[in-house]
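Input sequence (324 aa), recorded before submission:
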Amino acid sequence: MGNRTIGQTHDLYSVLPYIQIARLDHWFKNVFMLPGIVLAIFDSPKLLSWNLIPSLFLGVLSTCLVASSNYVINEIIDAPKDKSHPIKKNRPIPSGRINVGIAYGEWIIFGLAGLFLSGLVNPYFFWSAAALVAMGIIYNVPPIRSKDLPYIDVLSESINNPLRLYLGWYATGNTDYHPTLSLVMAYWMVGAFFMAVKRFAEYRRIADRKIASDYRNSFRFYSENSLLLSIIYYGTAFGLFGGIFLIRYRIELILAVPFIAGLIAAYLRLGFLEDSPAQYPEKLYRQAWFVIYISLCFLIITFLLFVDVPFINYFFTPRHLPGR
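Predicted structure, token format:
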């Protein structure tokens, strides 16, 4: 088959491998659109109606298609490196079950379909979806390929988090106002925290610097200590930007801080487990306790967004401002 495949070829035209590289099981990550939806409705409650459902359905579907486009190009470009990974070497492309030319066509079709549907939502949603496509190219495709650059790899992949926030927000039709910068930065930094924990777990799982470097170029520059320091940095930045947002826009969210801090600690704990589930975020649903806890946090935050707690202002409003 020449350069059309990577690895040994068999079952080349089976449909299943092509479905696998689209990673439909990763579509759940688009749940990160949900806070954008909730916050847009908080910002403009009049949006909440049955008429919202078709727009949300179309928005989620288009985002899923764009995400699958990015997953396909990731599978194609990463295939030579994946052969050095103890588990990813069994993926469809490095194991030789994919015609790479067809896979490139799949990448383009998913991307165009997602962008077409996004244009039916509204222009702001379209440009947010286009940015998601662009980040998939920047992250995966040479000569930029930010995935190979230490720290930039985490920041460039986790920027998909605030992009999903925008997608959720604009899917509601709230285009008169836009997410505030403190919220966007907090969302970016918590995404970077999750991604850095994933890198940390992967690095510990491979447990061999040379093999890790062969699998991922950025691992040439990382160590367990440097990854831990980056995790602390991203977690701290998330706390600071999140604090700015809640103080300026919704002080009731202070009551959610202990639960959010617990979520951060719980995810970091996952990163230290042997063969950590943090390596495979798409499989975190198997951690029932974690799913229950993160659902509880979401419910608490949503409740505090829409229910006023008068005594909070009393305790957190300064009685004396120095110099005044």
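Checked by second reader. The chain has two domains: 1-174, 180-324.
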